[in-house]
Task: inverse folding
């Protein structure tokens, strides 16, 4: 059973479209991280959210942590082919435990 | 980019053969981790280390052992490889425990057990 559920699993859109991917859990996390992974490489951290209700923006990417700290979303505005990749969320609980979702594989077509 | 290298990058082996994967860091980070990544499962922690000779099990530790004799090196050993251990293995490092700060990942090792 996946502790963190990400949806959708796959997403294919045209350049310029907006999209949102979701990360949901029944557990409360002390923090939640979003990573992006390109083929043949390891994941790279995009952002960490810590406070319930927190919103962080990174250029065209907007990250939100749910009020109850059980879910998060990543919104991309005007997607570009360079946004193509696997987006992973990871929730931290206790002092040294963290669980990853299975990821959303995004393809942005030119 | 964080200085993390993994070797080998690709390996094909046969069932029952011992396999050792190496992770090397130049960042002097205290924590090192081994994950495996499989479709539909995301990244799952195998073992981690919080200092030289200090290691602990993760979610999927059965069939794996680790050693850390130096700060910069963390070895993952499959004592007798099985087909279920076919996966992509990632090493990661951090200065503090997971979730407390950024983890930096290596480029991965693709292992195929025939």
Result:
């Amino acid at each position: 059973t996946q502790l963190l559920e990400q949806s959708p699993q796959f997403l294919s859109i045209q350049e310029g479209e907006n999209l949102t991917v979701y990360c949901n859990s029944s557990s409360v996390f002390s923090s939640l991280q979003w990573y992006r992974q390109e083929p043949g490489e390891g994941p790279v951290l995009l952002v960490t959210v810590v406070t319930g209700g927190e919103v962080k923006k990174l250029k065209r990417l907007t990250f939100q942590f749910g009020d109850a700290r059980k879910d998060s979303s990543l919104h991309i505005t005007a997607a570009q082919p360079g946004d193509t990749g696997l987006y992973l969320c990871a929730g931290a609980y206790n002092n040294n435990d963290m669980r990853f979702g299975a990821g959303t594989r995004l393809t942005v077509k030119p | 980019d964080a200085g993390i290298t993994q070797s080998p990058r690709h390996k094909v082996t046969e069932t029952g053969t011992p396999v050792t994967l190496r992770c090397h860091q130049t960042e002097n980070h205290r924590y090192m981790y081994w994950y495996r990544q499989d479709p539909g499962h995301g990244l799952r922690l195998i073992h981690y280390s919080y200092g030289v000779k200090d290691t602990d099990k993760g979610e999927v530790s059965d069939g794996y052992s680790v050693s850390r004799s130096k700060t910069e090196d963390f070895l993952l050993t499959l004592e007798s490889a099985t087909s279920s251990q076919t996966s992509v293995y990632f090493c990661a490092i951090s200065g503090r425990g997971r979730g407390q700060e950024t983890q930096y990942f290596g480029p991965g090792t693709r292992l195929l057990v025939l």
